[in-house]
Amino acid sequence: MGRFRVTAGLAKSVIATVAGVLVTVGWLAVSGKAFGIQLDPPAFGLVTLVAGQGIRVNVVCSEHAAGRFSPGPCVGELMLHDAAGNTLARQDVRLTPGQAASLPLTPVREAGDPVGIDPCWIPSPGNLGLAIPSAEVFSAETGRTMLFMNPATVQLSAVATDPAR
């Protein structure tokens, strides 16, 4: 029983060390700054079109504030690429809050084989607003939307909950 003796001096030293570590960790947790999260532009991924379908990539410049982001101009580029990365259509966009823009494409192809299209919205460095992109596949015959995609939901949620911003 007498092999391990804890003296009063040793106990005070251990308690002081543990308290020092806890204070340091607490200070770093409160005053430490998180690295600035660089959000990627919203990504849609490849969309397959069959004969008789077109695709449209849209962007709306929100007129509403989100967190510390006040409404501002939305500047960027709408693009549609094929599966090989070739640009099929592009449009520079400069919108004031509340405005929207669209870039449609109805691929013309010799065979009725499906074609892969990648819709893109790339914000420019001068983009100060909240640009909300979307894409839709539509019937070339009726114009009716067959599929609607909006990848911005996750992006806006990340901005709204990011304490570093």
Summary keywords:
single chain; 165 residues; alpha+beta; Jelly Rolls; 2 domains; 4-stranded antiparallel β-sheet; 2 helices; 21% helix; 36% strand; disordered C terminus
Task: Characterise the protein shown here.
By secondary structure, this protein is α+β, with helices and mostly antiparallel strands. It folds into two domains: 1-32; 47-161, Jelly Rolls (Sandwich). It is built from two helices and eight strands; from the N terminus they run αββββββββα. A four-stranded antiparallel sheet has the order 1-6-3-4, with no helix packed on it. A four-stranded antiparallel sheet has the order 5-2-7-8, with no helix packed on it. Strand 3 and strand 4 form a beta hairpin. The protein is extended. The N and C termini lie far apart (57 Å). The model is unreliable at 27-38 and 154-163 (pLDDT under 50).
